[in-house]
Amino acid sequence: MKRIVDVAAQLGIPQEEVEQYGKYKAKLGQEVWDRVANQPNGKLILVTAMNPTPAGEGKTLTTIGLTQGLNRIGRKAVAALREPSLGPCMGMKGGATGSGRAQLVPAEDINLHFTGDIHAVSSAHSVLAAMLDNHIYHGNALRIHPSRIVWKRAVDMNDRALRSIVIGLGDGNGAVREDGFMITTASEIMAVLCLAEDMDDLRSRLGRIVVAFNEEDEPVTAADLNAVEAMCALLKDAIHPNLVQTGEGDPVLVHGGPFANIAHGCSSVRATRLALKLADYVVTEAGFGADLGAEKFMDIKCRQTGLFPSAVVLVATVKALKYNGGVPKQELAVENVDSVRAGFVNVKRHIENMKQFGVPLVVAVNRFATDSPAELEAVIELCGESGVRAILSEAWEQGGEGCRELAHYAANLADSSETEAKFQLLYPDEFSIEEKIEAVVTRIYRGAGVHYHPAAKRALRKLEQLGVSRLPVCMAKTPYSFSDRAGQLGAPEQFTVEVKDVRLSAGAGFIVVHTGQVMTMPGMPTEPAAERLSVDSQGRITGLS
Q1: Distance of CA 328 to CAs 321, 449, 527, Å?
Q2: Are 362 and 389 contacting, i.e. CB atoms less than 8 angstroms apart?
Q3: CA distances (Å), 294 to each of 64, 213, 300, 318, 475, in order?
Q4: Quick one: angle between helices 228-235 and 199-208, nearest 10?
């Protein structure tokens, strides 16, 4: 690994502007932005994917490999990625820093506590929850209605036992009421951190967070509880982007970590803006499949910031094609060209969907050792028939060298596109909330319509009364299907999406729509990734991959 000050120097950042967290990690503070703010922006390249298998399809790996590839062909590139959550690291997926020769380093640090950003978000979330209950305990001057508290607690861990809890038990411990936890990466504070332009914007957004409603059914905010400055104090360092490197020494900004299935799924606006000033090309990712992360990137992040991608890279894998073509998980390593062809309907729909936004597209076929030549050839052929170039990515085995062709093509796409002239949002601000939900359901998921549960109908009426209908929607949905049912693989159509609740994230600036069985607090699988971890006598960690 290079020293982090040497990585910063590659971006023209002097040592005195690098806030070091040891030898290999750093934060880039306000003085860096102040110096480069007037420089022209580079090109933004978005990496997204088809609907994945539970193990993921290598979207982060491809983002890293593409960044390395761009630098190998002489283009100055930086990656902008999200921070891994401890929930998946200890749960199903393990680490989230890439693998093979396309990996972020120091991987163990990034996957675990890193620079403390996610802990800071957890703490800021917790102080708001504590001040809310403390206010009620000490007289409830704001006349908060106990049954209309909407602010849950948060912890950065998959822990199903905390989904529904009872608090206040015992003498002198406050009002007894039902409560629950969400994972920190689903917290509105995480979304606020990732969408805030600066400390003033962070403060304003935190103040708008709605925590409850009073006896007159009026919203009670974090500002009403005088909690904003305490939260800002806890987040004062977390707001600054983190600088690390790839295994090949390329600079990467890693900042913020909202999930894409239950939050908006993009790294921070501050990191993206800074990266665009420091490099000619910025490669960023949006979580899970394009039906979730990419749609939210376009309709939430782009809408709020005015930033637009100049090219999209859609990651596909043979195993995910076979999975969507009906092959059981235990047989994904067995050659099956017919199932690859059958599962291509999933990729084809994502291609069609991305074209709706007016951004040029290339498919990156992330190669696995078990992929046969015939299967890979089928994917490339099918993409060609759909009017899109498909390029083999061998980042895992070859690093940047394995992404040279992809880098050339993606850079040329970005350079030749007139994104601002062609870019289109899926729906206008003027649409009603229901119209926005139905636009996503019918145009991206290809469902027939929406069924609103009674709680969702009541919530929609309340949001209309509050006058927030111009906000975009953030769909909380399973990542494994276009529908709201994880088992409906491939490219289902004419299904009805069940909307169970609709919640305002006033600070983040969007409305969260809960569909199907999606939960804001995941659970661990039968054999969690935590069981594979070990630490030797020198403190070296193994099993975090």
Answers
A1: 12, 30, 19
A2: yes
A3: 18, 33, 10, 21, 12
A4: 140
Contacts by 172-175 with C-beta closer than 8 Å and gap 24+?
A: 174/133, 174/134, 174/136, 174/137, 175/133, 175/136, 175/137, 175/146
Q: Is the peptide bond before 106 cis (omega within 30 degrees of 0)?
A: yes
| Residue 32: strand, helix, or coil | helix
How far apart, in Å, are the Cα atoms of 524 and each of 302, 518, 531? Answer: 33, 15, 11
Pairing type for strands 311-316 and 361-366 reads parallel
Q: Which residues contact 270 (CB under 8 A, 6 or more apart)?
A: 33, 196, 197, 198, 239, 240, 241, 255
Residue 400 CA from chain centroid, whole number? 24
Q: What is the pTM of this model?
A: 0.96
What secondary structure does DSSP assign to 316-333, as a single string? E-HHHHHHHTT--GGGTT
**The tokens 């099956």 sit on which residue?**
336
Report residue 191 as tokens.
């979304």
Mean pLDDT within 150-170: 97
Query: How far does CA 467 lie from the centroid of its chain?
Result: 27
- Residue 27 tokens read as 């934060």
Q: Specify the residue for token string 């110096």.
A: 35
pLDDT tens track for 6-25? 999 999 999 999 999 999 99
Residue 298 backbone class (left: φ over 0; alpha: ψ -120 to 50; beta: rest): alpha
For the chain, what's the residue count? 545
